[in-house]
Amino acid sequence: MYFMALATDYDGTLAEYGTVRPETLEALKRLKETGRKLLLVTGRELPDLKRVFSHLDLFDKVIVENGALLYSPDTEEEKPIAPAPPPEFVERLRQKGVDNISVGRSIVATWEPHQAAALEAINELGLELEIIFNKGAVMVLPTGVNKATGLKAALKEMQLSFLNVVAVGDAENDHALLRMCGCGAAVANALPALKDTADFALEGERGEGVEELIAEIIERDYAFCANQRHQVPVGEDKNGPVEIGPPDVLLIAGSSGIGKSTLATALSERLRERRFQFCVFDPEGDYEDLEGTVTVGNSSTTPTDSQVLEILANPDDNVVVSALGFELKERPSFFAKLMPGLSALRARTGRPHWLIIDEAHHLMPAPRDSASLALSDDISGTIMITVHPDAVSPKALAAVTAVVALGPKAREVIETFCGAVGEAPPAGIDQLHEDDEVLFWRRATGAPVQRIRAEKPKQARKRHTRKYAEGHLGEDASFYFRGPENKMNLRAHNLIIFLQIAEGIDDETWEHHLRAGDYSKWFGERIGDPELAQEAAGFEEDRSLSPAESRQRLSDAVRRRYTAPASGKD
């Protein structure tokens, strides 16, 4: 379930001449029964609203006075969001002959044509007030107060994101409300200008239009309003942007050091720009400096599910969950422990909107059944990143709707994925010809594979020293000291272990790998550090260096870039 709440205007939308149809009330009840929330957002004052509408208890929150006052029907608590109107302003209006005035907790309301007198009074007194119109009504409120700001205060209390809210209205004062929410609808009797603001206009007028909207939400959820604000660009081809949306499960796959984390970083930026909330599972420390996030856990401290959920309780906060402190074999159990809480949060609030799961073959390995991984039946809004698609949980792979394959073996990546899910590879898989190209395949539509230019991050990605210095690189990314004729098999799964083994091995083994260029090759292809690789290549080519000297220089280069305190090296 993606749309978690309906925010509706009252007069001219929910009600006709102040009265709500019984059929409309029944529709509201049906929506509540799905687990969704109801919010009433109106320009009326609360005593007046209670007088004309006796069903406020249907609503979780009521925003009155055009956003200035928040009312909770279950507790009858009233919470002003804006200051009281200046008494001198009300008095000045009366002096100008405006006698049809209603004064609320924050609002001062009258009718046209008294807007001219209201504007004169505001200017004469030098007040920070603004005039808002509502089909003949003239409402004066503190500057910046409107239905959108009132709804924002209500959603904060409810821990909901505006992206998961559908709004419906009919008049001038509903523009901000519809623009703010994830989907905006206008009833058939709405002003033409509001219909232009809305994502679509309903066929029914007033309550009948709301009933129509509720039926669409219940039956189709996100599908009835798949507008552009929910789309996330992955890249672009010759025809324009290539995008994914909330129903998608994206697989990003390719060999090590080929740019998977770089693309994931770019996608996190696009998510932030659209105000999506996201949670990153980070087994290797690739995202510890990701902008706009809070990181829990590090190489020496393991995160807890309560820490993660506490951060995600605020819709404006994003979290990176570092699993560096866990042994490789412990990571699936940690992931499984956290998933039920995340799934419950998503079921209740629709958040976090996106899960980014790096090293998915570690967290969701194929040998583990879906029950032991605590995978939800619906994992939409997920981005999985892996070197080995066929090593990921079959249930997770079956849910994939789109694939991004990177690197010189991109075609093989898609073929491996298809083999893992038991289907024939798509048509038109070509090898990549440009360094900044990736393959994109929209699996669900049966479309051919596209060559696209992937999104690039705006933030400078830092070299994540913990992953390479202290982490646990996989077997395919580790360095193996084998020596001449493969007499030994010493594995270095991070740079610290590499340096420790390098100090202890014999000169013959050291120089065997040095002269073969194995060190620079590992730094470049597996560590993904071309600058270190270039420096190492210089030592490998310098025949004047003794084994002790080349060891020391290579060790100094690695320590300077990865283990020196507060180096900040990119």
Automatic annotation (TrEMBL):
Residues annotated as domain AAA+ ATPase: 246-411
GO cellular component terms attached to this protein's record: cytosol
Protein name: Phosphoglycolate phosphatase
MF terms in GO: magnesium ion binding; phosphatase activity
InterPro entries cross-referenced by the UniProt entry: AAA+_ATPase, AAA_16, HAD-like_sf, HAD-SF_hydro_IIB, HAD_sf, P-loop_NTPase
Extent of Basic and acidic residues compositional bias: 540-559
A Pfam family of this chain: AAA_16
Segments of this protein annotated with the region Disordered: 537-570
Signal peptide residues on this chain, from the entry's feature table: none
